[in-house]
């Protein structure tokens, strides 16, 4: 009777909690944050991690009404178009874009979304995940820099030209200002051979 029903309900609740805990652990391990938004009603939900990825307090409860306001201006139109295409096609998307934090810093996110219709109401719901990819973007940029530097330096034969090219390649990739001094073997003094700045 009653005791069996209570036991079954408690067992179901425990299984649900265990499943939720496993999902949260998997998301944390993958650096993922989850969200959903009803594009028909404008209602949405973010996990605390999504707020953190946008430089907002994790204790915040409601996503900003205009998400595009958080997107880096140069990426806004591309993001808007991609989301609209996904909604129109009831499809999926994955894209990389930048967001601006309240402190003015810019960060890279990878976001994925999937759209479906809700029952008879035919409301459009998009669910998705996002994660920070700043480190990956830095690594990609470093690799591009090394490939460009290697190709350009391979064609230079004069050491002064080589050093000047190195200085100009360093700015603005990882420096605002670069000077190269070389110790002269005869005088023991430093001689400035190249300089570059933003």
Describe it.
- The chain has helices at 2-29, 48-53, 73-89, 134-154, 159-173, and strands spanning 33-38, 44-46, 92-100, 106-118, 123-132, 177-183, 190-197.
- The protein is an alpha+beta fold and 198 residues long.
- It starts with a helix and ends with a strand.
- A hairpin with a 6-residue loop joins strand 6 and strand 7.
- Strands 2-1-5-4-3 form a 5-stranded antiparallel beta sheet, sandwiched between helices.
- Helix content is 44%, strand content 28%.
- It contains 5 helices and 7 strands, in the order αββααβββααββ.
CA radius of gyration is 26 Å
Could you tell me the number of beta strands? 7
What is the structural class? Answer: alpha+beta
Low-confidence stretches: none
State the distance separating the first and last CA atoms.
78 Å
Helix content: 40-55%
Discrete helix count = 5
Principal-axes geometry comes out as elongated
> What order do the helices and strands follow?
HEEHHEEEHHEE
Counting copies of identical and different chains, the oligomeric state is single chain
- Main sheet: strand order: 2-1-5-4-3
